[in-house]
Design goal:
The complex is a heterodimer. Chain A is an alpha/beta fold. Among the domains of chain A are: 107-233, translation initiation factor eif-2b, domain 1 (Four Helix Bundle (Hemerythrin (Met), subunit A), Up-down Bundle); 245-372 and 407-440, Translation initiation factor eif-2b, domain 2 (Rossmann fold), CATH 3.40.50.10470. Chain A has helices at residues 3-20, 31-41, 46-58, 69-83, 121-132, 138-155, 164-182, 187-201, 209-242, 256-267, 286-296, 308-311, 337-346, 377-381, 431-440; strands spanning 247-252, 273-279, 299-304, 317-321, 324-325, 331-334, 351-354, 408-411, 418-421, 424-426. In chain A, strands 3-2-1-4-7-9-10 form a 7-stranded mixed β-sheet, sandwiched between helices. The longest helix of chain A has 34 residues, at 209-242. Chain B is an alpha/beta fold. Among the domains of chain B are: 1-121 and 348-374, Alpha-Beta Complex (Spore Coat Polysaccharide Biosynthesis Protein SpsA, Chain A); 380-515, UDP N-Acetylglucosamine Acyltransferase, domain 1, CATH 2.160.10. Helix content of chain B is 25%, strand content 23%. Chain B has 15 helices and 33 strands. In chain B, the strands form 7 sheets. A 10-stranded mixed β-sheet of chain B has the order 5-4-1-6-12-8-15-10-9-11, sandwiched between helices. In chain B, strands 17-20-23-26-29-32 form a 6-stranded parallel β-sheet, with no helix packed on it. In chain B, helix 3 links the parallel strand 4 and strand 5. In chain B, helix 4 packs across helix 9. The longest helix of chain B is centred in the middle third of the chain and has 26 residues, at 241-266. The two termini of chain B are 48 Å apart. Chains A and B meet through helix 5, helix 6 and helix 11 of A and helix 1, helix 5 and helix 13 of B. Chain B: Keywords: Cytoplasm, Initiation factor, Protein biosynthesis. Chain B: InterPro entries: eIF2B_gamma, GlmU/GlgC-like_hexapep, NTP_transferase_dom, Nucleotide-diphossugar_trans, Trimer_LpxA-like_sf. Chain B: Residues 379-392 have a biased composition (Polar residues). Chain B: It is found in: Cytoplasm, Cytosol. Chain B: Residues 378-406 are annotated as: Disordered.
Chain lengths: 441, 515
């Protein structure tokens, strides 16, 4: 681009900023516009779908140089002038994360209806419990989902026109859609649901409804027992065996399995060790872990993630939990895990991941951007004390501030030394093998 | 309700009648309080509209023996909404808790209890979100009155004392305020007329930072958990919801958790889930009872195992929780809001149980376009509310006598029923000039006859009233079938049904025809 072209472009951007209020396009290289068209193909939210699609349609017809930025800018300018909407949370876009589902406040969701015939009351309550964080953590959410499904099954009344193995699955679909509105399903929940749906399909249509219902409830119970409860037991035993006297164990945020390992090692295993809990805003989940470990009598230190590099020199092991394990050996876990693991790696501290096999995923992910979950931006804006006004109050209408609350991140395989599962302690490269084995079952 | 419906029944609605003394005196001589008109609709229509608007499909109304015939008649003939109503007449007992006990067999899920004179605007979803997400035993709506409203005309009316924990006006403005709702820790209803509040040391130790105020008004809209109906069933001494049940529940928050915690510690259980599972295994033994007759199992939710995993186990032992959705009356709060954003109008929460409130409600609901929920009420052509007296004289409702604006000047915020007739004589004392009658800020029922030079301001006039010439009616309520002789001046009066009002001055009188 020549200097004049650049000047013209820059002045156009400044004008554009004033009229439309959106973040201006940064003309880096020609590659970016193409990337955008790919991203915009991935189901963008409907309000911006039109603008994105329009841009995507315009791009292939132009050459790949900076000049094609201008028709886009013009388009935006026209849009800005036409609509003249104040930038609210739903219209602003952070370019990099625009493909992720935006966070919608529970009040604004559809289907918070009362006595909706398609939703069982326990599902309605479950959705809200997910939204408020009353039930959080991979195991808890999956367990809650399965308990709710058990209740739905027990209360299911089979009409004469229906056959359970076909219709019950259909009945569950709107309920799951309802739950998805509040928080996207985790990998473990998806696997559990798939398993249950298979069982529903295999129900014998010749048996009576009651017998089928009992069988299904039993199947759900078996899944819970085998792949969650007993699996956790195995992992705990394995994990306890790996803790030696004098260990300094670091853990990040709160994993239910890690909590069990640490309490068991201290109370029953009689081992002498201490724990460093690393925590971060906005969820502060480490506090709950701290609470429980202190009640159990474990020697704990509590730091925020900014102190990780300082405390890492005393640490002998890092043990973390995971939301899911990906087929390329990466760990998909609470945001902040990746820096902790990378720091451990640079200090040559071994990193152990404890994860049940029902959370293993067939997908792969190289970065934390392609698939993630956006949380409530208001969580980021508030400080503890209630009487203080949120620091970033009014950020929705300010076009220059975009609050991003990511929930998960991906830790690459090279930073993970061992994965402890109920089938044994495996290197991260073997995750794909396990996934394959379970698929064949 | 068929079986399939009961599966997805999350919330049932019950409307009760609250007999808080007869503050509406002469107005209720002939007609039950629930049928007194507000903006020309019977009072009971309003809670029904609210429930219908919020998505409920059936409702149970509990009626007192003396009113049940008339109200049943209205529900069968006059009610045009879409709710399916199950009207139950209370055989024994009079008050709200007795009503709940009477319909105990119908209650299969969490239920919402409304007073039949409550006019409210708050979306039910907000209340429900708190109730669902926090496992609360009871959720209520607390109206935080600002100072200007508090210093009202009813200075001699006793107010409730309510203590809230975790209340902060700034937090309420946040859209996710239901994640952190206020909890009610002290509740002393107005009927108990306490002059001072005494709390024990354990109360302060447990709750710490409490905001206790008279400006928190309870609005008699409650969402209860299913087990509360069992509790009311087991306690025959509970007569009134507001005076007995709610204070009992609020107070029990103090000791239930400690008792349960001690019980778990004594028996070496770490979490509530373990305890409940062990109870299940030893099926022969008696279940641990939180209150006599209410087992811990019935209070704890099905999701207990998942909840135990996620939150601190000791907060889960807090089985009884009473939360409040606090509605702030003042709307002109933070100055940092953009002026382009419309300031929300203050929520409408009022009970039509005093004369002032009744008048206020008539005024508020006649303002067109103000309250979306009650918009349908402005379409007066739909219904013809039947009069409480036997004959609804149809020969009076002839439209060809509709008065012109020369004869009767009707103000913009008046509601006038059908069949208004102008009976002023052509020749008046001022020679050939007719003096028109004016109506300002008043609600007129059907078939009202107005003479010349009649000034009606700030009043409620019900059906079939004859008003003679030269009358002035201010700040008054005139019931059905009243005959007001010419030159009468009513100021701050209430006239019962069927009275004949002489043509003289009346000030602040309640005219009854039952001498």
């Amino acid at each position: 681009m020549t200097k004049e072209e650049r000047k013209a472009l820059y002045s156009k951007q400044v004008d554009n900023k004033k009229t439309s209020g959106n973040t201006p396009h940064v003309p880096s290289t020609g590659q970016q516009p193409r990337k955008q068209s790919i991203k915009s193909d991935q189901a963008p939210t409907p309000s911006v779908a039109q603008t994105k699609n329009q841009e995507a349609k315009q791009q292939p017809s132009k050459h790949q140089d900076g000049k094609q930025q201008q028709p886009k800018l013009q388009n935006q300018k026209q849009l800005g002038q036409k609509n003249k909407v104040e930038p609210t949370e739903s219209t602003k876009q952070n370019r990099l994360f625009s493909h992720l589902d935006k966070y919608v406040h529970p009040d604004n969701r559809i289907n918070t209806a009362i006595n909706d015939p398609k939703l069982h009351p326990i599902i309605v309550q479950l959705g809200l419990q997910y939204a408020t964080g009353a039930i959080r953590g991979g195991n808890a959410r999956t367990l809650a989902l399965l308990i709710a499904l058990k209740q739905v099954t027990s209360d299911y009344v089979q009409l004469d026109t229906e056959i359970m193995n076909r219709d019950f699955g259909n009945k569950i679909v709107p309920m799951i859609d309802y739950l998805k509105q509040f928080r996207p399903l985790s990998v473990g929940m998806g696997n559990a649901l798939r398993h249950i749906k298979q069982k529903i399909f295999k129900l014998n249509p010749d048996l009576s409804a009651n017998e089928n219902k009992n069988k299904l409830v039993e199947d759900i119970d078996i899944f819970i027992k085998e792949r969650i409860t007993v699996a956790a037991e195995q992992i705990v035993n394995n994990g306890v065996a790996r803790i030696t006297n004098g260990d300094v164990i670091m853990t990040y945020a709160r994993s239910e399995v890690i909590e069990k390992i640490l309490t068991r090692a201290h109370c029953d295993g009689g081992k002498r060790f201490r724990v460093i809990i690393v925590d971060s805003r906005p969820k502060n989940e480490g506090r709950e872990l701290l609470n429980r470990l202190l009640i159990a009598g474990v020697d704990c230190t509590y730091v925020y993630i900014n102190a990780v590099s300082h405390v890492m020199k005393e640490v002998t092991k890092v043990m973390i939990g995971a939301n899911s394990m990906l087929s390329n050996g990466s760990v998909y876990s609470r945001i902040g895990t990746a820096p902790v693991c990378m720091m451990a790696n640079s200090y040559n501290v071994p990193v152990l991941v404890c994860c049940e096999t029902y959370k293993f995923s067939e997908g792969t992910q190289l970065d934390s951007i392609t698939r993630n979950e956006l949380g409530d931006p208001h969580e980021m804006c508030t400080i503890e004390r209630n009487h203080m006004k949120p620091v970033l109050m009014g950020h929705e209408s300010n076009p220059n501030i975009h609050v991003l609350n990511l929930t998960y991140d991906v830790t690459d395989m090279q930073f993970v030394d061992m994965v402890i599962t109920e089938v044994g302690s495996i290197p991260p490269t073997s995750v794909a093998v396990i996934v394959r084995e379970y698929r064949q079952k | 309700m068929d079986e399939a419906r009961t599966q997805s029944l999350e919330l049932q609605a019950i409307i009760v009648s609250d007999d808080e003394g007869d503050k509406l005196s002469v107005l209720t001589e002939d007609s039950p309080k629930s049928l007194l008109p507000i903006a020309n609709y019977p009072m009971i229509h309003l809670p029904l509209t609210y429930l219908e608007h919020n998505g409920l499909k059936d409702v149970i109304i509990v009626l007192n023996k003396k009113n049940s015939v008339k109200i049943n008649a209205y529900l069968k003939d006059g009610y045009k909404g879409k709710l399916s109503i199950n009207a139950v007449t209370l055989e024994e007992g009079e008050d709200t808790a007795d009503a709940i006990r009477y319909v105990h067999k119908y209650i299969k899920s969490d239920f919402i209890v409304m007073s039949d004179d409550l006019v409210i605007d708050v979306p039910l979803v907000k209340l429900l979100n708190i109730h669902r997400s926090h496992n609360s035993s009871a959720t209520m709506v607390i109206n935080h009155k600002s100072k200007e409203e508090g210093e009202e005309k009813d200075k001699n009316v006793a107010l409730d004392y309510v203590g809230l924990v975790n209340y902060s006006p700034t937090a309420l403005e946040r859209p996710d305020s239901f994640k952190n709702p206020s909890r009610v820790v002290y509740f002393s209803p107005s009927s108990q007329l306490k002059k001072s509040v005494t709390v024990g040391r354990s109360f302060m130790r447990k709750w710490g930072n409490v905001m206790l105020s008279k400006s928190f008004a309870d609005s008699h809209l409650y969402v209860f958990s299913r087990w509360v109906s069992d509790l009311i069933q087991s306690r025959n001494d509970f007569v009134s919801l507001k005076n007995h049940v709610i204070p009992f529940l609020v107070d029990s928050q103090r000791y239930v958790k400690d008792k349960l915690q001690r019980h778990l510690q004594d028996n070496n259980f770490k979490t509530l889930t373990e305890f409940l599972e062990s109870e299940q295994e030893q099926s022969g033994n008696q279940e641990y009872e939180v209150f006599p007759g209410i087992s811990a199992k019935s209070i704890a939710r099905t999701q207990q195992p998942a909840l135990d995993m996620s939150s601190s186990s000791y907060s889960l032992l807090d089985l009884v929780r009473i939360y409040a959705h606090v509605v702030s009356a003042s709307s002109k709060t933070s100055s940092t809001k953009n002026t382009s954003e419309p300031t929300p109008s203050p929520a409408l929460i009022k009970r039509a149980n005093t004369l002032n409130n009744y008048m206020d409600l008539n005024r508020e609901l006649s303002k067109k376009g103000e309250y979306k929920l009650y918009e349908s009420m402005h379409d007066q052509s739909i219904t013809n509310a039947p009069t409480p007296t036997a004959d609804s004289s149809t020969d009076k409702s002839e439209d060809h006598n509709t008065p012109t604006s020369e004869e009767v000047q009707i103000g913009s915020d008046c509601i006038v029923g059908k069949g208004l007739q102008y009976t002023g004589t052509a020749a008046t004392q001022q020679g050939s000039r007719r003096v028109s009658s004016t109506l300002k800020k008043c609600n007129l029922g059907h078939n009202v006859k107005i003479g010349s030079n009649v000034k009606i301001a700030n009043s409620v006039v019900m059906n079939n009233v004859i008003i003679g010439d030269n009358c002035t009616i201010q700040n008054s309520i005139v019931c059905c079938d009243v005959d007001i002789k010419p030159s009468a001046n009513l100021n701050n009066c209430q006239v019962a049904s069927g009275c004949v009002v002489e043509g003289r001055d009346y000030k602040a009188e309640a005219l009854s025809n039952k001498h």
